[in-house]
Amino acid sequence: MNLYLGCPIWAYKGWIGSFYPKGTKQSDYLYEYARRLNAVEGNTTFYAVPAAETLQRWVAETPESFQFCPKLPRTVSHAGSLRDHLGEAQEFLEVMSQLGPRLGPLFLQLPPSYPPDQLPDLRAFLENWPSEVRLAVEVRHMGWFEDAVHKSLTRILTAHNAARVIIDTRPIQDLRGDRILEGSVYKRLLEARLRKPHLPIRREPTANFAFLRYIGHPDPARNEPFLIEWSDHIASWLVSGIDTYTFCHCPDERLDPWLCRDFYQRVSALVPLPPLPWDENDSPAPHQPRLV
Predict the structure, then answer these.
(1) How far is CA 248 from CA 54, 85, 252, in A?
(2) Domain layout of the chain by residue ranges
(3) Which residues pair with 244 in a beta bridge?
(4) pLDDT number for residue 188
(5) Helix-strand-coil percent breakdown of the chain, rounded to 5?
(6) What is residue 286's predicted lDDT score, i.e. its pLDDT?
(7) What is the pTM for the complete model shown?
(8) pLDDT at 292 (0 to 100)
(9) Contact at 8 Å (CB) between 210 and 107?
(10) Are 250 and 217 in contact, with CB atoms under 8 Å apart?
(11) Whole-angstrom Cα distance, residue 68 to residue 46?
C-alpha cells in the first residue's frame, strides 16, 4: 500500500525551526524535506520548465522512493486546445523523465474557462498520452460536475487510467470564528477563499491511483471532521490497491507539513503502513508551531 504525502512546495523559510532544523540553509531545503515527507506537488513547473542541472540536483537530494508530481506548464493547459499543444506536453514529459523512478503522476490543471464541450479535445489528449506515465486531471468549470457530463468524463478518465484530481476547499469556506486568527493569516485565508475553487467532491476512483488536494484551515480544530472523513476514504483506497497521493495546502503555509503528518497518523491507525520518513529520521522531531 503506497501513501504519498506532501506539500505544494519545499522552499519555505517559515519552516526553519519547526519542520526544518534550526539553521537549515536554503540549499538544503529539499534534502530536509525529503527526510520527512515522501512526495511534493510540483507547482513551479506550471511557470517554467526546470533545467537538466536542476533535475540532477533534485535526484541527488532525494531518495529513490520520493515522488515529484509536476504540474504541466500553463503553455499546455491554459492555451486553448490541448490537442494543439501535444508536442509541448511531450517535450515537457521528456525533460521530467530525467527524474527516473522519482517521477510520480503528472498533474494537468485545466482552467475554469475549459468547458465540458471540450471533452473531445481532452479525450484526444489522453489518447496521445503515454500509457506508462500516470496523469491526474483537474477540471474547474462547474459544468464538468453535472451528472451526465461527470459520467462521460469518468468513463474517459477510467479508459486511460487517468485520475480525477479531487480538490477539497470545504475547510476554508466556513467563516465562523475566523477573527481569532492572526491578522496576516486571516488575510491569507480570505485570499484563499477567493482564489481556490469551491467544487463538488467526486470520490470514485478512475485510475489505479488517487490524487487529493486538501486545502486545510489554519485552525487545526476546524480540520478534524475532514481529516477523519478523508482518512477513512484513503484507507479504503489503499486496501483496494489504489496508490494515494495527498497534498496539503493551507493559507498559513506553516501548517502544511503538519497536516500531512496528521493524515499519516490517522490512516496508519486504520491500515498497516511503513513508517513516514519523518518518523524514521534519527534527529529529534521538530515541534509544531502555534498557529492560532
Answers:
(1) 24, 30, 11
(2) 3-280
(3) 3, 210
(4) 75
(5) 45, 15, 40
(6) 57
(7) 0.93
(8) 44
(9) no
(10) yes
(11) 13
Q: What is the pLDDT of residue 174?
A: 73
For 13, 163, 243, 252, the CA distances from 216, given in Å and listed in that order, are: 20, 22, 22, 9
Crossing angle of helices 119-127 and 147-159, rounded to 10°? 10
Report which DSSP code applies to 176.
T
| Nearest C-alpha neighbor of 112 from the set 39, 198, 43, 31 | 198
User: Across the chain, which distance is largest between two alpha carbons, in Å?
Assistant: 54
Mean pLDDT, the chain, rounded, equals 91
Which residues in the chain land under pLDDT 70?
Answer: 175-182, 193, 282-292
Angle between helices 52-60 and 86-96 (to 10 degrees): 40
pLDDT of residue 280: 76
Sheet with 67-70, strands from edge to edge, namely 67-70, 39-42, 3-7, 243-249, 209-215, 163-168, 135-138, 106-109
Q: Which of 99, 94, 105 is nearest to 69 (CA)?
A: 105
Q: Are 262 and 227 in contact (CB under 8 A)?
A: yes
Q: Minimal CA–CA distance to 108: which of 145, 143, 137, 79? A: 137
Q: May I ask the CATH class of domain 3-280?
A: alpha beta
pLDDT in the model for residue 195: 77
